[in-house]
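Supplementary Note 3. Input sequence used for the single-chain structure prediction.
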Amino acid sequence: MRVQRTRYFLAAVDTGSFRAAASQCEISQPALREQVTLLEEELNVVLLVRSRFGVHPTAAAESLIPYFTRLIAAEEAVHRMAAELSDVYRGRVTIGSIATLAEALLAPVTSRLLSQHPKLRFEISETSSTEIETAVLAGDFDIGVITSPRTRAIGGVTRTRIASASLGILVPDHHVLAERRTVEWQDLEMWPIVTMRPGTVVGQEVADRLPSAEVVVRAASGRTVKVMVQKGAGVGVLAAVDLPGLDTSLRWIPLLDTPPLEICLVHRSDSQPSASALIVRRFLEEQSLALFAS
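The predicted structure, written as discrete structure tokens, is reproduced below.
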């Protein structure tokens, strides 16, 4: 079985149409449709129900999806093991990351890479989640580390969720909200807001939820938000991933009426990552488990 065919099938399931799946995988629609049909013929199972409204998986396909997912993971594991046996973890991996995750996830991974794979070279750039996805699609980054926007990934880019982080507010311990166990967005309407800059997921969430709020600071990093709140500039809105190193004079309180932010790795949908990129991705996944399980 060609593993790539299962990738095309899963893309069709994820997007709900051959056209969108072909755009995501950056191949022609007829070619993708043919590969899915060949997969069905090989397995002797109808996997997709086709209609003028798109495609959706059959009951049989729903049962097979976990196996397809494991098959793809197994192929990547084979590539990683082969690379370890042949010591090919070398070359250069380019990584785009939002500032917060560069500090929390990439810094420990960098230390591990330097220790275990000294021949591997990497380059890390900090920018926004949206800009990272665009750069991954263009081939400027091999891997992106983002907090996932509420919108779908752009065509040709795949997001893999590795963790989630709650969104909350940050206030000095003497603030009137400091004794609350949880808050809602409506509780913030009367306060000046300190949050992340436009183009970030948190900044966009604030703009959508509090369109009339007085935003006094639009910061480029969570560290700046914390300092500004500590100095009394306003109420901070920040994800839990920014909390390591939080001063004891500040309190973080979760926002009750908002879903957690998804932390994702992103890569191009149409290509197999290099062995070096796979080891970086594995280290990031392991570090995220250690960070967010604690």
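The longest strand covers residues 157-165. Residues 105 and 291 are 8 Å apart (CA to CA).
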